[in-house]
Amino acid sequence: MVDYARPESVVRKKKIKRVAYGVAGLTAILMVTVAVSRLKPAAPSVERGTLLIDTVKRGAMVRNVRGTGTLVPEDIRWIPSTTAGRVEAIVLRSGATVKPDSIIVELSNPDLQQSVTEAKLQLESAQAQLTNRRAELDSALLTQRSATAEIESNYNQAEYKAQADESLFKERLLDELTTKIDRAKANDLKNRFAIEQKRLEMAETNLKSQLAVQEAEVNRLRTVYALRVDQLDKLHVRAGLNGILQTVPVERGAQVQAGTNIARVADPSRLKAELRVPETQAKDVEPQQNAEVDTRNGVVKGKVCRIDAAAVNGTVTVDVCLEGELPRGARPDLTVDGTIVLENLNDVIQVGRPAFGQDAATISLFKVDPTTGEATRTQVQLGRSSVTSVEILKGLKPGDQVILTDMSAWDAYDRVRVN
Question: Do the domains 76-107+235-266 and 48-72+270-418 match in fold?
């Protein structure tokens, strides 16, 4: 077989075809690469069952806040010891029903018992001195009254005699000298009678003033004795009101000082709820706002009656005074849930409260397209919030569906697919 040399034109055409095919292949590869680079990344999938999706709507909205707390008595009284003593007996224990005169604890104090005896003896001595002094002053007063009566009698006799002498003198039956002497005696007795009357008045006044000093001393000692007796009686520590004995923080044989709390009594018929409201939600709570308290056995209506001035551990204590009859089982220290109504809003765009977002904040929510099942991140401006709902100011319209669940795990994505 004989080989023939190919013409150069044929060789050149083959090279041109090879180059054209290479350029076409590279161009195709570049176009595919550019197209692929321009494709958006695939949206991650999220199970619908794990999401809380709500629909934006327009209508009335009740703003409220919630808090947990306990029922506490409105009338709680600590019963202190009025004097030092030793605990001899604990008559009643926690949980007992008490009346004002119910004895809870019995104390003893020998020094107080001795002081009662001494006060009694001092009072009896002062009373005896007062009686003796009154007898002395009465005797002196009687003597003065007797002397005054005697002078009065002598004066009356002398006056009668002087008048008789003057009548006889006018008829010239008696001489002038005798008449003048008798008149002088009568005048002298008259002056002496006036002086004795003043002495009698002074004696009566002095008697009252001198007895007043003695009586004041007797009254002082009587008050001291009554105080000591009262202190001795209060060694029997009584409840002082109708209620339930909550605690007795002393033990038998313990020595207590005056002012030490012996027991705490509460009136279980008058309870209020102490709710702990998150400090971020407590700023709009005001006195007299309506509230409802769930005792697990029933719901009781009430009103806000006190707001604590300071926040503790991120909460503010709000007291709700209850109205109406309490449900069965309501008792002090019972755990309750409370809802406080802040205000009623009319015709507002609202949606369920998302996992994150405070009043007047701008947050991002995933808005769900019900047709495609894709959820797109959307900036939403919030308004006023409630426990379960929040006002929408911008970013959503009625009918939109949004995901309320915490989506922080998908912060790197602007779209997710809801399956």
Answer: no
